Amino acid sequence: MKRVLLAFAIVVALCGVSLGAVNLQDMDFSRVNPRVRIKDITDVEGARSNQLTGIGLVTGLNGTGDNSPMAVQMMRNVMRNFGVTLDARSVRTRNIAVVALTANLPPYARPGQGIDVNVSTMGNASSLSGGMLMQSPLRAADGKVYAVAQGPVIVGGSSAQGAAATRTQNIPTTGRIPGGAMVEREVPNDFSMGGQVALLLREPDFNTAQRIADAINRMYGVVAYAVDAGRVEINLPGPYIQAPAAFLANMGGIEIEPDTTAKVAVNERTGTVVMGGNVKISAVGVAHGNLVVTVGESPTVVQPESFSGGVTAVVPRTDITADEDGGAMIAMPATTTVRDMVRVLNSLGAKPRDIIEILQAISKAGALHGELVTM
Prior knowledge:
- This protein has six helices and 26 strands.
- A six-stranded antiparallel β-barrel has the order 3-4-5-11-7-6.
- Strand 6 (132-139) and strand 7 (145-152) form a beta hairpin.
- The chain has helices at 2-15, 69-81, 206-220, 244-251, 338-347, 352-364, and strands spanning 36-37, 42-44, 50-59, 97-105, 114-121, 132-139, 145-152, 154-155, 158-161, 166-169, 174-183, 196-201, 224-228, 231-235, 255-256, 263-267, 272-275, 280-281, 284-288, 291-297, 300-302, 313-315, 318-324, 328-332, 368-369, 371-374.
- The radius of gyration is 32 Å and the shape is flat.
- The longest helix is centred in the middle third of the chain and has 15 residues, at 206-220.
- It has three domains: 50-158 and 166-183, no CATH class; 192-256, Alpha-Beta Plaits, CATH 3.30.70; 263-302 and 314-374, no CATH class.
- The chain is an alpha+beta fold.
């Protein structure tokens, strides 16, 4: 162990790795967007996933299932399929639960492959821990069965109940069956119709679409053109007309520098602020100050004199103080970048929720050159 630690220390020293805090002054902000592969920012038109849904019955629960009429009826239907007829009054078990099943059938999935299944209760079951899903069909929007699910349910939560208390951790009424659905039907994926393929941008942008087309044309000749902000059409080059998959594999590795719209995303519930690197601020002045109101309660007990016939009473006493921190007015020049904005707001001592208010005020003043998105 000592040799391993010594070797690690030598490597860190030779590489000049700093284990200290990150210093914004040393970071390179000259490039807003990195170079990325085309395959990482686009999808191939025609190659899409499909949603599957179904209803199933989970068995083997340790008294945590549901006893709703829906569960009783489903249990009777299942037993009827096996030639057993049950009376509604004879089904008295809390070891079963009716569940909803959802899954995504990915593109290029072939019969015999497994996909993950999400399981959630539909009745009053308290936990699916230890349950086993019986064979259940999964259908698409066209009503056809594309997969069949079955297997043990993995639950990420737990629940314990006693005579006077109940403790629940996470959500025990939902679970997952990794690879629990077997694909039974293939969905055709026609991504190369008429010798053409199309790329769909995950974040539509005219500049990015044009850069993708230019990068492909530099590699394969004039074969690509941007239709709009979200679609690029490509005529397959001669050698790849019969092998569109090979073209997509080679073309997907081409790197470009994408362009993005200037946006500032804020979440007031969590105090999260995310600012794009190309957001600009016009010349504004920002003042920041906090008004702190303190309310203190110090009730006083009043004791009457002896033999006076009075009673002991509690007299409320409230002390209210208001302190306002020393505010500061700081001017930000025009074309302020994200780096400058962060430095200025940190110098003001602003917290994330204060920054949200400042950004909203700057946007209302018309000085924020970007879209303010409230999540």
